[in-house]
Write a structure and sequence with these properties.
The mean pLDDT is about 85. With about 130 residues, the protein is mainly alpha-helical. The protein folds into 2 domains: about 5-35; about 45-125, Cytochrome Bc1 Complex, Chain D, domain 2, CATH 1.10.760. The protein has helices spanning about 5-10, 15-35, 45-60, 80-90, 115-125.
């Protein structure tokens, strides 16, 4: 005797109740993970913290992860004045009267960082030894 096609499907596929229970379990797991991780309001960063993120993303590869140390291509820049940061980042130039530490001209302008000059300045000031 062959079992009917319907009884074979019932033996292979879970019932609707099992699928609903599985879906509920997944949703409950996501809700629990969300509560543990804490999806509260976004954290507010200080200018120095924002500047650190900008520095690590755009500057550290040439200067150094630690702005107090010279990098492979760029000098140590912790404590650099805003005028220097703005001139180098915006125009790949030096402010009037500034004498560079290195005589290379490898740095290119990074004009997309214009809104972050103050944040970079805050980070480099905070990173400088006191």
């Amino acid at each position: 005797m062959r079992p009917s096609q319907e009884s074979r499907r019932a033996a292979i596929a879970p019932g609707r109740g099992a699928i609903a229970a599985l879906a509920f379990g997944v949703a409950a797991g996501i809700a629990a993970a969300t509560a543990v991780v804490g999806c509260g309001p976004p954290r507010t960063l200080t200018p120095a913290q924002r500047g650190e993120a900008i520095y690590r993303t755009n500057c550290a590869s040439c200067h150094n992860r630690d702005p107090n140390l010279p990098g492979a291509l760029g000098p140590a820049i912790a404590g650099a004045p805003r005028a220097l940061i703005e001139a180098r980042v915006m125009h790949a130039a030096y402010p009037a009267g500034y004498h560079p530490r290195r005589q290379t001209h490898l740095m290119r302008a990074l004009p997309w960082l214009a809104p972050h000059i103050d944040d970079l300045t805050a980070y480099l000031a905070a990173a400088a030894p006191r």
